[in-house]
């Protein structure tokens, strides 16, 4: 395969499904391309691919000398370490514009919507390519995942409209029920090593020169995490020491109550109060209404660090 | 007006026409937006707007506190100096991805085609908005300008297809003749101050830490420049001193012969030989087949400087 497409490190369902769908679309447009991912499937992504009978992409961590499309990120920190030796053909994303640059013209489809897969769904329409039933199913799941079943502040009308179309194509009658099934899988913590829970959806950011890690665990009920919360707090403290971070924040997001408990280890606790107006106690704080790392947590923290 | 859209510094016809057309499209999609430009019209752009009866955008050099769409660039060096204080809603472009970043999700339409206006033509189609006759005319001219009437190495089938549609919509029977009329205006040098000729289509680049200026003058016959060539060479030497450049290159491009004579002032002449395999003599060199600064000159020089 001469071209590879892949999402960010610690791939989530959007990164995996967007890579699969973009490879499908581009193949039909005549490109020799395969999907890849920078790490193993999460339980949620595994559930989604198995539900619709779609094969998992290969895990690839080195891309030197390859032609690549990035999906679901445009930050060097989220990209493979040897991205500088790859030739970037394009980016499909829905985040803020990161620090990836290129030395050749490229193809970017980056929209301010809730999920990369919403953009890819529109690309199928634009290029007049029919979306296969199984691909429609995983695109639908990715949008439900990234938008927390339409509850996230990042969710837009375009995401909802895409899901309506995708539900029809994939033959899903009850979108809400599919979303809850998926989030129950995502919520499960039994038998998972603590570090894996911390890293399930974890990203490092550079905020005004400070290394800041932000993880997020989304559950259908916070009580699911009662038995592991102390271990999670201890592990982010260890991770902070290992990584030399200024701060690590772990968001425990209750998608039904619509808010997040944040576990905090930081050289300066006051950034949380600066960012959210809430004083942490015992290394944690409840952030009411905060569901989205990208739209709510990262911008507020960046301002607090600036 | 709450939103402004504008192209790069020293605006060319693509930057001006793309801003006008994007504002038209976005207005029809419900946004409160106006086109702007960072500098005065070139004679070519003036000819194009007058030919199709389209008003020139306002010259605006400060964008602090504004919501903005960038067109035809994604480099901080090409953007307004206070771009950091603006809120970037999106980018429509056809260059390599530059060093602009954002702290919020945004809308990017960046394609590896010959002209930003080719992307905007497709955006009208995507959003199902009819292209007005006058806008079609200026989009057509911008594509003819950026692709040097389809002769540039950057020209793609998408640019040609867009021009076919745009010629129909704008009622232009002879696209080739329109292009030649436009390039004759662009070629004219009488009565133009030397510095204006140097700066007519001029950009500064950062190449591995070196400040490199590259200007381009496209003419229908190099002999048009015989009377001013010595003055141009002297002026880029002055400009180099003023700006503290490592090198300034001025491409005198003959669009009929399909090549460029490059005038050189540099701390290290050998970069031209490294980049193009041609040894300069008397501060100049003929680069056969080299028509595109973006696709041929910049990538080769970047490699030579690396
Ligand atoms: Mn995503
Ligand atoms: Mn252009």
TrEMBL record, chains A, B:
<dbReference type="GO" id="GO:0005737">
    <property type="term" value="C:cytoplasm"/>
</dbReference>
<dbReference type="InterPro" id="IPR038763">
    <property type="entry name" value="DHH_sf"/>
</dbReference>
<dbReference type="InterPro" id="IPR001667">
    <property type="entry name" value="DDH_dom"/>
</dbReference>
<dbReference type="Pfam" id="PF01368">
    <property type="entry name" value="DHH"/>
</dbReference>
<dbReference type="Pfam" id="PF02833">
    <property type="entry name" value="DHHA2"/>
</dbReference>
<keyword id="KW-0479">Metal-binding</keyword>
<keyword id="KW-0464">Manganese</keyword>
<protein>
    <recommendedName>
        <fullName>inorganic diphosphatase</fullName>
        <ecNumber>3.6.1.1</ecNumber>
    </recommendedName>
</protein>
<dbReference type="InterPro" id="IPR004097">
    <property type="entry name" value="DHHA2"/>
</dbReference>
<feature type="domain" description="DHHA2">
    <location>
        <begin position="179"/>
        <end position="305"/>
    </location>
</feature>
<keyword id="KW-0378">Hydrolase</keyword>
<dbReference type="GO" id="GO:0004427">
    <property type="term" value="F:inorganic diphosphate phosphatase activity"/>
</dbReference>
<dbReference type="GO" id="GO:0046872">
    <property type="term" value="F:metal ion binding"/>
</dbReference>
<dbReference type="InterPro" id="IPR038222">
    <property type="entry name" value="DHHA2_dom_sf"/>
</dbReference>
């Amino acid at each position: 395969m001469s071209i590879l497409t892949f999402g960010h490190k610690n791939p989530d369902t959007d990164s995996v499904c967007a890579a699969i769908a973009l490879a499908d679309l581009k193949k039909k447009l005549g490109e020799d391309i395969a999907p890849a991912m920078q790490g193993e499937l999460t339980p949620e992504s595994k559930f989604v691919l198995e539900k619709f009978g779609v094969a998992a992409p290969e895990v690839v961590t080195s891309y030197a000398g390859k032609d690549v499309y990035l999906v679901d990120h445009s930050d060097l920190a989220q990209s493979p370490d040897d991205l500088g030796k790859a030739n970037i053909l394009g980016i499909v994303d829905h985040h803020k514009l990161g620090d990836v640059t290129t030395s050749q013209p490229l193809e970017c489809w980056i929209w301010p919507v809730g999920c990369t897969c919403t953009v890819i769904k529109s690309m199928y329409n634009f290029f007049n390519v029919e979306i296969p039933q199984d691909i429609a199913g995983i695109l639908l799941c990715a949008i439900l995942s990234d938008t927390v079943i339409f509850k996230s502040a990042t969710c837009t009308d375009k995401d909802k409209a895409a899901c309506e179309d995708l539900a029809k194509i994939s033959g899903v009658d009850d979108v809400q029920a599919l979303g809850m099934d998926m989030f129950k899988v995502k919520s499960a913590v039994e038998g998972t090593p603590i570090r894996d829970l911390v890293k399930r959806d974890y990203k490092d950011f550079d905020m005004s020169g400070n290394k800041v890690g932000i993880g997020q665990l989304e559950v259908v009920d916070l009580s699911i995490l009662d038995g592991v919360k102390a271990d999670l707090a201890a592990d982010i403290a260890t991770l902070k020491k290992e990584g030399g971070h200024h701060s690590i924040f772990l968001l425990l997001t209750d998608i039904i109550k619509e808010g997040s408990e944040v576990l905090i280890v930081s050289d300066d606790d006051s950034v949380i109060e600066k960012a959210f107006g809430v004083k942490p106690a015992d290394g944690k704080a409840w952030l009411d209404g905060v569901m989205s790392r990208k739209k709510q947590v990262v911008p507020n923290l960046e301002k607090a660090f600036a």
